[in-house]
Design brief:
This protein is an all-alpha fold and about 45 residues long. The chain has helices at about 15-20, 25-30.
Length: about 45
């Protein structure tokens, strides 16, 4: 996600207007129950 990736989260008024800009990325994932610490920073092959 740090390399021009997109994540579509619900754009709630709280997220847009009450969350500081530098905290929105984490808040967007958190609103969907995703812990960003668990995201992999590389891809693999099955």
């Amino acid at each position: 996600m740090t390399r021009h990736g997109w994540y579509a989260a619900p754009a709630t008024p709280k997220l847009i207007f009450d969350t500081p800009t530098d905290e929105r990325w984490v808040a967007a994932f958190k609103s969907d129950g995703i812990d960003i610490r668990l995201l992999a920073n590389e891809t693999g092959a099955a």
